[in-house]
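cron nightly-structures :: item 1 of 1
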Amino acid sequence: MTRRAALALFALFFGGFGAYALIDLGASAYYAERARTWPTVAGLITEARLRSNGRRGPGNGASHMAIAYTYEVDGVAFVGDRYQFADNYFYARKQEVILSLNGEPRRDVYFDPSNPARSVLRPGVNLISLLVGGAAGLLFLSIGAIVGAWALRKR
């Protein structure tokens, strides 16, 4: 493989990852804002804990929130697992969320009336996640575009 082809492949990978991240973030932001208008039903928290990915210890961002709740819409039972769309919190905030969910197991569940299996406990956008995720997506997309332009330039 030539150097030029390798750079083009690198650019395609980086740019593609950045574009995917931005599209995924945009979809999360869309649903997060739509969820503000969704109807609510009573739900019951059945699991709320921090789960480590096993590679690092707690407190370094290696943990994610394992959340499960049950709710019923028109007599049909559902199980949800989303606290908030794009809920990439730091460890201390994750602990606060888990403590609050364990302290009050009955919660309002916001559900999408066009797809009741899509639900969330906290509607709206997490601004920090949106900004950090958007910046990271733009960075990857920009690096891909710059390297791609450099690789494809005429000599």
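cron nightly-structures :: done
The chain has a mean pLDDT of 85.
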